Amino acid sequence: MDILKNTHYVPSHQYQLSSAILFTLFGVILAIPVGAIYAVISNYSPIIILDLVLIVGLVFVLGYIIRQLIERAKSRNRIVNMVMAILVGLSAYYANLVMFITLQFEPGSDFIFYWLELYIDPMAIYHIMLEDIIPYREITITSSSSGRRSSGLVISEGLLALVYFVELIGFLAPTVLATKVNYFCESCQQWYKTFSFITRDDEALTQQLSNRQVGHYADALQDVQFYKNHKVLAATLDADTKSVNVLTYEYNLCPDCLQQSILNIKPALLKKEKKNFVLKPLRSKPLAQDVYIDRPTDEFFNRLKNNLY
């Protein structure tokens, strides 16, 4: 049995300043069209629900961009990652405000010139929002009854300012995602690749895994049926099954050296809601978290990866 030098992964929090600056600048530029497109769609959207869907979509788009920037900058430092995310988010939000104001004043043939003039003058944006937009603009949420529209909630002044503030929070929401740093191989300077699996759980399996030495799980898992995801597992359940306890496995390995692989094992509940099964994490303590695994366990999950992926 292998003797592991380290039992748990600990992030180094390292980063390269030049790479972080370079990719932040690239992200700030890339965020400009994202914010501008958001402003155009939201400005002409007649449905408040569509605006809510739009802000959710924005969070995913910005989150994806920020995640890619962080990975390419190879930053493992949460503070640096958060600064990168905030600057990208603010860039998108500022571009959104500039486009929004430009659309309100409709400069016509001078549209691009007017947009650029506003973009390089943040104080003008500040004064226009406080003095011309928030005091006078109204958003009316209407409802329909028997084919007729009736007046509904009117959003103006203080409440309108709150709406814009919530919108700002939406632009900055991806910063929360940026605080999570993936596993990184310092020797190869590569991010780990992640593969997920799932099994049914019972007291015997939990007990076996709990009794094993940290990182040595191959023997306990040899006869366990693994599935690629919860949908594949759900397809094997009886029609009258309402819920089943499961274990989720996250296998992480360096694509270059294939050494010091990391495993997470967490309990969850596969519960039927309406016609579909939904995977719900439990608050129970993980059976393994950020754990380096020995060679037999690594070989076991490597074979499993090749069979199921």
In short:
With 309 residues, the protein is an alpha+beta fold.
| Major β-sheet annotation | 5 strands, antiparallel
Euclidean distance between termini CA atoms:
28 Å
> Which class do the helix and strand fractions yield?
alpha+beta
Q: Look at the structure and give the mean pLDDT.
A: 87
Counting DSSP H or I runs of 4 or more residues, the number of helices is 11
Task: Report the strand count.
Answer: 9
Order of helices and strands: HHHHHEEHHEEEHHHEEEEH
The global form is elongated
Radius of gyration: 25 Å
Strand content: 15-25%
Low-confidence stretches: 143-150
Q: Helical content, roughly?
A: 40-55%
Topology:
Blueprint: H1 17-44, H2 48-73, H3 78-105, H4 111-119, H5 122-133, E1 138-145, E2 148-156, H6 157-172, H7 174-178, E3 184-185, E4 190-191, E5 193-200, H8 203-211, H9 218-221, H10 230-234, E6 243-253, E7 262-273, E8 276-281, E9 288-292, H11 295-308
Transmembrane segments: 20-41, 47-67, 79-105, 111-130, 151-173
Keywords: Membrane, Transmembrane, Transmembrane helix
Report what the structure shows.
The chain crosses the membrane at residues 20-41, 47-67, 79-105, 111-130, 151-173. Keywords: Membrane, Transmembrane, Transmembrane helix. With 309 residues, this protein is α+β, with helices and mostly antiparallel strands. The protein has helices at residues 17-44, 48-73, 78-105, 111-119, 122-133, 157-172, 174-178, 203-211, 218-221, 230-234, 295-308; strands at residues 138-145, 148-156, 184-185, 190-191, 193-200, 243-253, 262-273, 276-281, 288-292. Strands 5, 6, 7, 8 and 9 form a five-stranded antiparallel beta sheet that branches. Strands 1-2 form a two-stranded antiparallel ribbon. Strand 6 (243-253) and strand 7 form a beta hairpin. The two termini are 28 Å apart. The model is unreliable at 143-150 (pLDDT under 50).
